[in-house]
Amino acid sequence: MPAPPAPGPDGVCPPADGPGPGRPPAGDRAIETRGLTKAYGGGRLAVDGLDLAVPRGSIFGFLGPNGCGKTTTIRMLMGLIQATAGHARVLGQPMPAAGRRVLPEVGALIEGPALYGFLSGRDNLRRFDAADPGADPRTRGARVGRALERVGLAAAAGKKARAYSLGMKQRLGLAAALLQPRELLVLDEPTNGLDPQGMREIRALVRELAADGTTVFLSSHLLDEIEQVCTHAAVMARGRLITQGTVADLSATVLGPRGNGRLTVTTPDTADAARVLKELGVSGVEITDDRVTGELPAPDAPMGGPDGGAPRELADLNAALVHAGVRVRGFGTERASLEDVFVSLTGEGFDVAG
Ligand SMILES: Nc1ncnc2c1ncn2[C@@H]1O[C@H](COP(=O)(O)OP(=O)(O)OP(=O)(O)O)[C@@H](O)[C@H]1O
């Protein structure tokens, strides 16, 4: 996997047109936009100067509250609507100019699949396949069968699509996107409206597809979804890019440069635990009820053990507590969530309309 874009000192990644440290070289980007902008009537910008850099091979989450401009961006990327300003490249080619060359390499699922309810799942796929001028009709049956198999719909292939659950319809839409091998999959809110089981199935499928080397760009307003499935993310609010980078780097932006997370120790011996942790270099130590929390030292910081040694790992910290007679009932670290990132960078709660 190419090197992820690194956040800058303010925690925000450099724009796509900068040579930014850690930013994937242009050839390694599945999607790249510069200043991409869309104004609908009324003058308000639905998308405002967007600089995106999606590394090839990533599972890239495009995250933001409803109405922040995700679908509008995707529609511009796919050449479905014209940008008001700015540029977009998909698989290295300018869009929409190179649409005919690029789009056969891209599987897209935007705003739910358009299915005929009176046709079976299999016949819906045959119809999609027949609409592809590059698809050989002689091998259609095999292609459709493989795609159904891939999304776990082989057994239900003969059922009318109107009898499918929402999750099955989404999977059928994905199967349509997978009839041909694709370099890039673009999925707009693929789990929207699904029950938890349906969501899990789609996420598992996304992971499988990415494991085969396909870049997956998926939009979502669900923070935990992005955290669970994505390697990288861009965070949008009100049409603007707030930040982008690896999911781990984004978490680190709100944890400070040390980015190690907070340690939590649950113990009846809170005062002793706090003292030992401070001696070991843990800062910001706080006691709340039977919990002692603190910020872990940087990995390269000197960390003195009680015997003058230098415990470096969490396990060593735990051992030192036990050695000092602290009865440890719980021990662990917490990383910042993407929700923390969003709130810290925008000053807003996540559940706002864009
Ligand atoms: N065809 C249109 N004409 C006018 N305004 C539009 C149009 N499509 C979208 N908008 C507006 O542009 C903004 C961005 O909408 P968009 O659908 O891109 O957001 P989104 O992040 O995909 O949200 P959602 O998840 O709710 O679809 C919203 O304020 C929306 O009302």
From TrEMBL:
InterPro entries hit by this protein: AAA+_ATPase, ABC_transporter-like_ATP-bd, ABC_transporter-like_CS, P-loop_NTPase
MF term (GO), any: ATP binding
Region (Disordered): 1-28
Pfam families: ABC_tran
Start and end residues of each ABC transporter domain: 31-263
Gene3D superfamilies: P-loop containing nucleotide triphosphate hydrolases
Keywords: ATP-binding, Nucleotide-binding, Transport
PANTHER family listed in its UniProt record: ABC TRANSPORTER, ATP-BINDING PROTEIN (PTHR43335:SF4)
Family, as annotated: Belongs to the ABC transporter superfamily.
Protein name per UniProt: ABC transporter ATP-binding protein
Organism: Streptomyces nigrescens
